[in-house]
Structure formats: structure tokens, C-alpha cells
């Protein structure tokens, strides 16, 4: 396991592009594979998570070619997937496992999903429960709570489901099962989570209707392959938005970032803290809004973060914690208990790391209170095997008084291959 040492930065300046959106990349492979005809994807994220999804569909007989520019998927139609001869390895990817569980529940074959030790520790009942109500046959460790999951495909029927969590993975798993179910499937959620499945499935020709509080899918519609342009991942851009906000004199432009309103919580939160962010050249690319984001250094102040913005910024909290650590006052995060069931418990992981850097952090069951400091202490930080913790502490290291070493940074390849090089490329020392 490789560790990495970050030196403090004098400034960060430049114009960059971040890799493709992870959520959209997963979905492009999944929906393209069960569509009729060819789907061509440009901007596909070649991170380990999205590649796990790609390999899973190859293992189910789908021809997927990558020439380094475009990923081309020769769709097999709604009922054309083949029974995989081995366990489908989802690696570290919750999105792969949960969405695949929904999709596989309605097939006419048997399949098994597993993943790395982090994924095997994450809760799966949140999808297994509602899918079972639709008639799915899914077994797993701990009474179906933990992977490996064994799925005997079966006939499904539509349900109405009120999800207790605002989770796009839960919503999308049920929607995917709904494509195969008899009748209509309705999912409601407390706050709107990312809506890429809704947008993309509709564009592929599925019967998907959204309404305030939820989504309705009608089963049986054939999908048609199409071209997809994957925008830059706002969750990856977030590390640079925070770096640009906390390093004095910084100015960065991040080109071609997806700004779907269900993902822009990071922008709302940072601007609420006083960050200097500007959206330039707003445009639409195959059904998703895109912009260039300019960020300049500005002193930050603490704020309260809760409610509907939480699912709109769910993966950005480790980076937001770093911004809060440098903000004046105490930032209070609540309603964010979902952070405890990610690749690691991200509340405990960030509290631990920020304390090592000299910050006062109080953990609460559903969030944390972070009291900002004017400079971080040099420290040895731990990624806990979580890509977003690793990248957040590398950004924190830019404003520390001395060297910050982060353990086990290999996990960054999960979502952001090339992160270190991109960051070092904009740092001035
Ligand atoms: O649907 C998706 O693509 C994702 C949904 C989110 O998970 P939850 O649905 O568990 O909140 C997010 O954390 C993950 O990185 C990607
Ligand atoms: C939580 C994440 O992804 P997943 O749930 O797909 O593992 C993430 O990328 O931060």
C-alpha cells in the first residue's frame, strides 16, 4: 500500500479537466447493454468502479470495446444478457452492486455479486428488501444484508415504495427492476437524490415519469441505444473547488463539469461559506447541464449544513470537512448519517484525520461539528482505504504547516485516476 507526502502550496493556479462522471459512466454501460442497438460513450470514466461495471456486462456476454476515446456497447436488448459463469466482482463500488442487484433480479438466470472487504461490509438490505417485495429471490450473508449476494432471477411485479433514505442507488435499483416488472413501479424518497437514471432511461426510451417526491416506471418498454457524452465529475471537481477556496491567491478553472441540480450541493455549500465560485459557459450535453467552474481564494466562514442539500453533496462531505476546518467559526453538519455507510465511516474518518491536523471536531450520530483554524498542523493522515478521504487529506496538506503524509492512496484509482498528477500540476511552491 502506497503512501503519499504532500508539501504545503504557495498557491494553486491553472485550467484543468477532471475525469468523467462516475454515476453517468456506470449507467451508460448498464443501460447501453440492455438497449437494442449500439451506444457510444465519450468521456467515460476509466476508474476502477466504472470499469467493474464494464467487466460485469462483458461477463454477461455484452460486446464492449474501448479504443481509448470512445466506449462502444453493442446492446443485447432487455432480455439478451447471458448467465455469468463466475461471481461478478463489483470491487469497491456500491453503485455497481446495488444497481446490478435490481437489474439482475428480473433476469431469467442465476448470478452472484461480490466485492472487496469494504463493499462486503456495506448494507444491502436497503435494495434487497424492496426488491423482495417485487418478487425477487435474493440471498446474502447476514440475512441478505451483506454481500456476496446470490440472485435467482424471477418474474417481478411493480410496487409502490417509500424509501426511508434519499439514495440514488436504492431508487435506481428499484427502477431497473421496474423495467422488467409487470405494471408500474413507484419510488418516493425524503429528498431528491441524483436523477441521472431518470434522465438517461427516459432518453433511452423507457417509460419513466417524475413527480414531486418520486418517480414512476412502467415495465416492458424496449430501450434504444444512443450516443452519450459524459461530463466531468463534479464530485472530482470538488477537491479542486476546495483547494481553490482555501489556498491564498488561488485561481483555478475546471472545464466541462456536470452541474445537474441534484449534484450541485457542493457549490451551494461553498458559496454559503463565502467561496468565490463562478459558473461559465453553461450548456447542455446529451441531457445533462455542464459548465466551466472558476474558483478563486476567499476567506470562508462556518455554516449549518442539513436537509435537502445533504444528498445533493453526499460524496463531497470529506472535502467539505476540509473547507470547514479552515473556515471561521463552527460548521455544523446534521442529517448526514448516510456518511457512516460509505466506503468507510466518513464522519469518523474525517474527524480522526482533522484532529490529527489540530482541528477540534465533535462527532454526532448524524454529522459533526468542526471548528475552523487558521492553519493545519503537519500530520500523518489515514485514508482508511477510502478514495475520497485520501484526496481530501491531500488537499488539506496544501495548507498545513509542514508535510502531510497520507497512508494507502492506491484507492484513489476507484474514482479519480490521475488525481495526484493533476493536483501537483496546479500547485505552486
Ligand atoms: O447512484 C449513484 O451513482 C451514487 C449514489 C450515491 O450513493 P447512495 O445512493 O448510497 O447515496 C453516491 O454516494 C455514489 O457515489 C454514487
Ligand atoms: C460512495 C461512493 O461510491 P459507491 O457507493 O458507488 O461505492 C463514492 O464514490 O463516494
Automatic annotation (TrEMBL):
Query: Is S-adenosyl-L-methionine tagged as a keyword?
Result: no
Q: Does the keyword Transmembrane helix apply?
A: no
The compartments listed are: Cytoplasm
Q: Where is the Enolpyruvate transferase domain?
A: 6-422
GO terms in the biological process aspect are: amino acid biosynthetic process; aromatic amino acid family biosynthetic process; chorismate biosynthetic process
Catalysed reaction(s)? 3-phosphoshikimate + phosphoenolpyruvate = 5-O-(1-carboxyvinyl)-3-phosphoshikimate + phosphate
Pathway in which the depicted protein is active: Metabolic intermediate biosynthesis; chorismate biosynthesis; chorismate from D-erythrose 4-phosphate and phosphoenolpyruvate: step 6/7
Query: Which GO-annotated molecular functions does the record name?
Result: 3-phosphoshikimate 1-carboxyvinyltransferase activity
Q: What is its main location?
A: cytoplasm
Q: Which GO terms describe its cellular component?
A: cytoplasm
Entry EC number(s): 2.5.1.19
Q: Which UniProt keywords apply?
A: Amino-acid biosynthesis, Aromatic amino acid biosynthesis, Cytoplasm, Transferase
| Residue numbers binding phosphoenolpyruvate | 22, 94, 122, 169, 346, 388
Where along the chain is the active site annotated?
315
Q: Which InterPro entries match?
A: Enolpyruvate_Tfrase_dom, Enolpyruvate_Tfrase_sf, EPSP_synthase, EPSP_synthase_CS, RNA3'P_cycl/enolpyr_Trfase_a/b
Question: Could you give the subunit structure recorded for this chain?
Answer: Monomer.
Family (UniProt): Belongs to the EPSP synthase family.
Q: What does this protein do?
A: Catalyzes the transfer of the enolpyruvyl moiety of phosphoenolpyruvate (PEP) to the 5-hydroxyl of shikimate-3-phosphate (S3P) to produce enolpyruvyl shikimate-3-phosphate and inorganic phosphate.
State the protein's name: 3-phosphoshikimate 1-carboxyvinyltransferase
Q: Which organism is it from?
A: Geomonas paludis
